[in-house]
Design a protein that fits this description.
Protein name: U2 small nuclear ribonucleoprotein auxiliary factor subunit-related protein 1, putative isoform 1
Number of strands: 7
Keywords: Ribonucleoprotein
Helix content: 40-55%
GO cellular component, one term: ribonucleoprotein complex
CATH architecture of one domain: Beta Complex
Largest sheet: 7 strands, mixed, barrel
CATH class of one domain: Mainly Beta
Radius of gyration: 58 Å
Distance between the termini: 166 Å
Organism: Cinnamomum micranthum f. kanehirae
Structural class: alpha+beta
CATH topology of one domain: Dna Repair Protein Xrcc4, Chain: A, domain 1
């Protein structure tokens, strides 16, 4: 890959503003929050705008050669693409500061620098900035405003697309859930029907106990007959005979015997 900025992705972020340590405390006024925008003007130039939209607006334009010099100063090895990637990663991190200083005049500070590093202990990138005034400052602030709007619009469109995708996935999930519940109901109906059939055919012996009924009908009289044919083990004298009818000739004879006098004998 050649030493160009064709693949450089724009960076829009916030820089924490602070005064240079060489600035006398008596001259340090309150600093506002700064928004900065880094982008490639073309394949060979990088531009940085930073503004608080009130008192200060800063700009820096760096050529590929100036970025190469910066690379040598901070001592980053590797390829050119690796250096550009580290530069963008540092400016995209939360470790970006705008250090304000230089000679102060009636309008305030005259110079500043953008300082950033990817993470603690990593090489520090420092890019000097020049102050813009009047129409140049207005143009830079206008450009920053449109870039902020475009960034907001892009995020809003991403959110809308994600919401639409989530809505579609939710509908698909609901449809799949209804389909699953329908299949489950069909399976439950099949299982219930199978159980009913099993109970119906498995309990037919109880519903029609033919063998038990026939055995009771056939064996009960036979058992009673056998029991009546067997000789009784009971004492014959203990059996009741009052219910038997005695023939008439026997009854008369018995009564005559009872009426006889013992003396005649």
């Amino acid at each position: 890959m050649g030493k160009g900025l064709e693949d450089l992705q724009p960076v829009l972020g916030e820089a924490k503003a602070e005064w240079n340590i060489t600035t006398p405390p008596s001259q340090q006024s309150s600093l506002s929050r700064f928004i900065f925008y880094v982008h490639a003007i073309d394949s060979s130039r990088l531009r940085i705008h930073a503004s608080d939209f009130r008192s200060y607006t800063w700009e820096s334009i760096r050529t590929v050669q100036q970025l190469e010099d910066l690379r040598d100063v901070i001592g980053i090895g590797g390829s050119w693409s690796e250096f550009v990637a580290y530069l963008i990663a540092s400016l995209s991190s939360d470790n970006v500061k705008l250090v304000v200083g230089g000679v102060l005049d009636s309008t305030g500070a005259t110079s500043a620098k953008l300082v950033a590093h990817k993470s603690k202990g990593m090489p520090l990138i420092s890019i000097p900035l020049g102050r813009l005034m009047n129409s140049s400052a207005d143009d830079a602030k206008s450009n920053l405003s449109f870039e902020l709007f475009n960034a907001y619009k892009g995020q809003r469109d991403d959110i809308v697309r994600e919401q639409e995708r989530t809505c579609q996935l939710t509908k698909m999930l609901h449809a799949e859930r209804e389909k699953s519940e329908s299949i489950q109901r069909q399976l439950d109906a099949v299982v219930f029907s199978s159980k009913r059939k099993h109970q119906k055919f498995g309990g037919s012996d109880k519903a029609f106990p033919m063998s038990d009924s026939l055995s009771k009908v056939d064996t009960a009289p036979f058992s009673e007959k056998q029991s009546s044919d067997k000789p009784s083990n009971k004492d014959p004298h203990s059996m009741k005979v009052g219910s038997r009818v005695v023939p008439a000739y026997r009854r008369a004879k018995v009564r005559g015997v009872v009426l006889q006098d013992d003396d005649d004998n």
